[in-house]
Design brief:
The protein is an alpha+beta fold. It has helices spanning 40-47, 56-69, 71-74, 114-132, and strands at residues 26-37, 83-93, 98-109, 140-150, 157-158.
Length: 161
């Protein structure tokens, strides 16, 4: 099998961290999102800030920011980065009882922050699940994906609708 077209494998098929030493430092931004489908009891507890464990979205926001900063500790071949911005926001959709988390991560560096944004969304949604599982164990985390990235040699990526 030819592994040379995968950045994280050498020609023998061994996992390696990509050498970014010769890359230029550029401003890199990534935006990711995902959602969690909940029952009406959870939705209104989150919306009205009446969950027994406290302010669900405030805790989930901090969890997402912390996850962005710690991505290289969890994803084995990610580079440790000096992140200059990590933000997590939420949109509540009453019609379909979903809470969408959107994360934006920024760095001035030699490698992108797509994994950090995706990790932030994942941790934020898992935190919502954790804080509300007593009300609804059937919550479903869904559709985590990259929306936008910019910077570096590959330029701008925008997800098509």
């Amino acid at each position: 099998m030819n592994f040379t077209h995968f950045n994280h494998f050498n020609s023998e098929g061994n996992a390696v961290m990509v050498d970014v030493g010769d890359k230029e430092i550029t401003t890199r931004i990534a935006v990711a999102e995902g959602s969690i489908k909940v029952n009406s009891e959870v939705f209104y507890a989150v919306k009205n800030n009446t969950a027994k464990k406290g302010d669900v979205l405030a805790v989930a926001r901090i969890a997402g920011i912390m996850a962005a900063k710690k991505t290289s500790d969890i994803i084995p071949l990610c580079h440790p980065l000096f992140i200059t911005k990590a933000a997590v926001d939420f949109t509540l959709n009453e019609t379909d009882l979903t809470i969408t988390a959107t994360a934006q991560v920024k760095v001035n560096g030699k490698t992108g922050v797509e994994m950090e944004a995706l990790h932030a969304v994942s941790a934020a949604l898992l935190t919502i699940y954790d804080m509300c599982k007593a009300l609804d164990r059937s919550m479903e985390i869904q559709n985590i994906h990259l929306l936008h990235k910019e910077g570096g040699k590959s330029g701008i990526y925008d997800r098509k609708a």
